[in-house]
Structure formats: C-alpha cells, structure tokens
C-alpha cells in the first residue's frame, strides 16, 4: 500500500492512526499542501478532488476520502477491529466520526482558511470566532455524545474509528485556539490516546515530511 498525504492534514492523520492500530505497513508519499502539490496534474489524476489522503491499495486501486479508506481497511484487514461491539456501538462510532469529519474538520482546512483570509478579509479575531462557532460547536456536540458512549475511548474500552477521527480534530483545535477546555470527556480520551503507541506513531511530528519549528 501507498499513502499520499500531508503531515499536518487531519484527514491523513486519521488514516495513519488506523494503519498503526492495525499494524499495517505502507509506503508514504508526501503531498505538500502549502506548495499546492495537491493541485498538480499528476496528483489530480489520482484524486480529482485535490485533497489528501489518497490510498493506493495492494491491488493498485485508488481510494480517496479518509473515512472511506478506514472502512476499506476494516473490511480487508478486520483484525483488530476498529468497529467492534454490537450494531448500536458501531452506529455510535460512525456517528461520532461523521460529526467530526463532516461538521468540524472541513471548516478549518487549508482551502477554507485561505478563502476566508484572502478573499473575505477575515482577520485573526474573525478566524477565531469562525473556528469556535463551527468546529467548536461540533466538538461540543460530540462531548454530549461521548457521555452516552464512552468508556476508556470514544465507544467502549477499545480504540476505534471514532478515536481515529477525534484525535486529529483535537490536535487541530489546539493549533487554532478553539476553546475546548470545558469538554472534559473529549480531552480525557485525547490524553489517553496520546499515550497509546499507535497514536504516537501516527502523530504529525513523527512523520517524514514534518516541519519542525
């Protein structure tokens, strides 16, 4: 397998966590979003959306969209499972993942940030308000969901799909100053995941294309 991605991309981060939890080996091809490499003809041939990540499966098939990639990995490499438990538990995991992936993360990605700053004239205060209203609001909703589903991790006591999506979103929230300090269960799970070897391996700072400040 080969994964095309960017070290600080939340969506790529999700897939790296899933690969690490499943102990799957893969080649990594960096796509520098800040240099616009995602808009090159060569990359658009692989992923017409111009987004990361893209997975090249062992049989050569191209798979895009992070959650779809994780679900593919779950089907092809079911052990250990990222969607364990009964049907209700699996539905809860998917619901948490979808809330973060659809209602939080897109509002903070590079192309949205650039549009707001460069074309709409958002200053730092306006950007902070934006991030707290949209990603912050979705994360507050997830906090309430976790009250019904969480054990040591988002759904029960084993890390899975929801944790793969939650951890990158919290990482991004901390970068952008989203006010999540009051979200106690979310932060508790994030801290627990941060000590797990698979999450450590997948952390942005531990990637070959990471930029050290």
Automatic annotation (TrEMBL):
Domain GST C-terminal as annotated: residue spans: 86-213
GO molecular function annotations of the record: maleylacetoacetate isomerase activity
Keywords, comma-separated and alphabetical: Isomerase
Domain GST N-terminal: 1-81
EC annotation from Swiss-Prot or TrEMBL: 5.2.1.2
InterPro entries: Glutathione-S-Trfase_C-like, Glutathione-S-Trfase_C_sf, Glutathione_S-Trfase, Glutathione_S-Trfase_N, GST_Zeta, GST_Zeta_C, GST_Zeta_N, Thioredoxin-like_sf
Pfam families recorded: GST_N_2 (PF13409)
PANTHER family registered for this protein in UniProt: GLUTATHIONE S-TRANSFERASE YFCF, MALEYLACETOACETATE ISOMERASE
Family per similarity comment: Belongs to the GST superfamily. Zeta family.
NCBIfam families noted in UniProt: maiA
Record protein name field: Maleylacetoacetate isomerase
Gene behind this protein: maiA
